[in-house]
Design brief:
The complex is a heterodimer.
Chain A: H1 3-13, H2 16-26, H3 28-40, H4 45-78, H5 81-85, H6 91-123, H7 128-132, H8 134-155, H9 159-177, H10 186-198, H11 203-209, H12 216-240
Chain B: E1 5-14, E2 17-27, E3 30-35, H1 42-50, E4 57-62, E5 77-80, H2 92-102, H3 108-118, H4 134-146, E6 152-156, H5 164-179, E7 183-188, H6 191-197, E8 200-205, E9 208-213, H7 215-220, E10 227-233, H8 236-243, E11 249-255, E12 258-263, H9 266-280, E13 284-289, H10 294-304
Parallel strand pairs in B: 3-7, 3-8, 5-6, 6-7
Antiparallel strand pairs in B: 1-2, 1-4, 8-9, 10-12, 10-13, 11-12
Helix pairs in contact in B: 2-3, 2-4, 3-4, 8-9
Classes of the chains: A mainly alpha, B alpha/beta.
């Protein structure tokens, strides 16, 4: 990791306006939990897990897409990438640092969202352990989505459109309909860890997982594979593709 | 001695569009002006030579290595990109410090202060770049490039948006760097400015090299190009009539008391004209070329391209 580059990219990603907007987006599951709990008097653990697994499946990946996709894309679009590219930083380090900065920014938003889920869950009667399990879910998926969307942002001008295609069409529709596609879903890698930690989670979570087997190490291994592929792809692209 | 930047048969194309075509040249110490109209391929050539873009064909070496394969060379090279590409959320000082940190400059705080002083930006260094004028942004970009004290400095249209005082100051700075033995490449389409700072000019037209040399060499290399000569005489109509029979006179235009001649053999005309005037009893008041500036050379190159 290159500390100067990491600091710069993190600071750029966490500009106030963007942070507030994405924080609000990522907070939607907590809001839904609170609203449902207020309306019905309480929310069961299974209901909380179901809301996180379904509502969070769209809101958090979109927040991750906006942050990770912008990590190199903004600079490529406005020409400032020249300052980073013409620094004596080996490309594998530049790629790893860029993904690392996106992970840090996305994780910050995700952990904030998980904290709100925890607070909202406790407020409406859910167990502490179920709320705490949301933290590793958001943390692991922050790594997966960053490893995916930083290279896509570098390579494709319309990263948001492409990323929405992955999050909404691929993960939410195709992965439910086509057996095997679920194993390409970053969100489900996180859910497999989530499910393992809370030991079950009910029908909503089972349905969301599809054929993906619950398991902490399995989920971590898959996200590590996504990270390795994303890092390699970005390193290769920085070497081979035009920077501007 | 090997020149710091060498391009060999370099071409760059984007789909069907050829941006740079078969360019072979070197850049050495001193200021070189990279000259050409918009769309001539200057920016693409700069991007290719710095490694920002990969050549479609040919080879680029900077300080003996391919910059895309050996990023260490970026510690000795700096570039000022075109347009207003800066991080608008940073102050000028933060922006320059970022460049110092990315380039692993020793004692970055001192280097930043030095760079700011070099471009005379001390009073505004604490302000966000967002509020900077175009000229001030250019100076901040130049300071960011200078912060690592590079051996090679490549500037893409660095004078765009600068006011006359800022321009003069930047030109003087580039000249000093060139005189200090740095390799300085400045792209521009403002010909008079290039003429003031560059000891060597590389002219590009339509992605191809049109000419290389000093301004004088460029002119000498194009002795066969048509030149415009303006003659102020007491009887311009008679002079025009007499000139029509002279070899090498390709065109004549009569304007009140002056005759403008287009000639492809100005030397022969210079010999013949006094005799012709004497024979016809015409008084010549003034004879002067109308297109001896670099601008005219450049226009000719563009036309010839």
């Amino acid at each position: 990791m290159n500390l100067a580059l990491f600091r710069h990219q993190l600071r750029k990603l966490l500009r106030r306006g963007r942070l507030i907007g994405l924080g609000l987006l990522a907070a939607v599951p907590a809001l839904v939990i609170f609203v449902v709990g207020s309306a019905t008097g309480s929310v069961s653990n299974q209901e909380l897990v179901g809301i996180v697994a379904t509502v969070g499946a769209t809101t958090f990946p979109i927040a991750a897409l906006i942050l990770a996709g912008a990590t190199l894309r903004d600079e490529k679009d406005d020409g400032t990438l020249a300052y980073l590219y013409l620094a004596p930083i080996p490309r594998p380090i530049m790629a790893l640092t860029s993904i690392g900065a996106a992970v840090a920014a996305t994780a910050l938003v995700g952990l904030g969202a998980a904290a709100l889920v925890l607070v909202a869950g406790l407020a409406v009667g859910a167990d502490l352990a179920v709320g705490l399990a949301t933290f590793p879910l958001y943390l692991v998926t922050a790594v997966g989505y960053s490893a995916l969307f930083v290279p896509v942002g570098y390579l494709i001008p319309r990263v948001i459109l492409t990323g929405l295609g992955y999050v909404i069409v691929w993960e939410q529709i195709v992965a439910r309909l086509v057996t095997g596609v679920a194993n390409t879903s970053v969100w489900r890698f996180g859910l497999s860890i989530y499910s393992d930690i809370i030991e079950g989670g009910g029908n909503e979570l089972t349905l969301a997982l599809g054929p993906v087997t619950p398991g902490t190490w399995g989920g971590i291994t898959k996200v590590a594979a996504v990270l390795t592929i994303g890092w390699s792809a970005l390193t290769y692209s920085l070497h081979r593709r035009d920077a501007l | 001695m090997t020149e710091p930047i060498q391009l060999s048969d370099v071409s760059k194309w984007f789909g069907q569009k050829v941006a740079v075509s078969d360019v072979t040249l070197t850049f050495g110490a001193g200021v070189t002006g990279l000259l050409g109209p918009n769309g001539a391929g200057k920016t693409t050539l700069i991007r290719v030579m710095t490694g920002l873009q990969r050549p479609s064909a040919g080879q680029v070496t900077v300080l003996g290595v391919d910059p895309r394969r050996n990023v260490d060379v970026y510690g000795r090279l700096a570039m000022v990109p075109e347009d207003e590409a800066v991080y608008t959320h940073l102050t000028a000082r933060q922006f320059i410090r970022l460049n110092a940190d990315l380039r692993k400059v020793e004692d970055p705080a001192a280097a930043v202060t030095r760079a700011i002083a070099t471009v005379e930006l001390e009073d505004s260094a604490g302000r966000a770049l967002e509020g900077f004028s175009k000229g001030m942004r250019q100076r901040a970009k130049v300071a960011a490039a200078l912060v690592s004290d590079p051996e090679i400095l490549i500037l893409d249209e660095p004078l765009n948006g600068a006011d006359p005082v800022q321009r003069a100051s930047l030109i003087s700075l580039f000249v000093r760097l060139g005189e200090a033995g740095r390799t300085v490449i400045v792209s521009s389409h403002v010909l008079g400015e290039v003429e003031r700072m560059a000891s060597r000019i590389v002219a590009m037209v339509d992605g191809r090299l049109a000419a290389i040399g000093t301004v004088a060499q460029l002119r000498a290399a194009m002795t066969d190009r048509p030149r415009m000569i303006r003659i102020d005489a007491d009887r311009p109509r008679d002079l025009a009539r007499a000139l029509m029979a002279v070899d090498g006179v390709d065109g004549i235009r009569l304007r009140e008391s002056t005759v403008e001649i287009e000639t492809s053999d100005s030397l022969a005309l210079a010999h013949r004209l006094p005799a012709l005037a004497a024979e016809s009893g015409i008084e010549l008041r003034r004879v002067e070329p109308t297109d001896e500036s670099l601008e005219s050379v450049f226009r000719y190159l563009v036309g010839a391209g």
